[in-house]
Amino acid sequence: MELNINSPSYYTRQYGVIDEIYDMCREIRYWVKDKHYSPVVDIVGIIPIVAPKEVIDSGLCKEGKKCETKAGFASVGLQIDYETYVNADIDEKKRLIINNVLASVKAIHSRAKIDYAEFSKDIMQYCEQAGIVL
Hints:
Elements: E1 2-5, E2 9-10, H1 11-15, H2 19-32, E3 43-50, H3 53-57, E4 64-68, E5 73-79, H4 82-87, H5 90-108, H6 116-130
């Protein structure tokens, strides 16, 4: 599966890209690259949303999910609590992103026919080898 994890929406525009988070997301992408979790979806795009409440309330940075099975594509944008992410150390930021990835795939797994148990197991294996404690 091709898993594209974007930099956190809003947060990245305000604070820039965090290299350790970028690297982790790239590693996860490679970790699942040769795996097949779904007969109908080959590409999943994930957009973690890290924005203050007032930005979200104004209608910007909306959560959403889309599953285009005919095109073999799904995309998900779910929120991570802004204050928690901003105040977190790098290890906690990694955990928040991974939990967002897991929640995002879980949100579309039925429609996209994704084997969530297998995907989750593989992500946990990645975390174990990377030394990330969830």
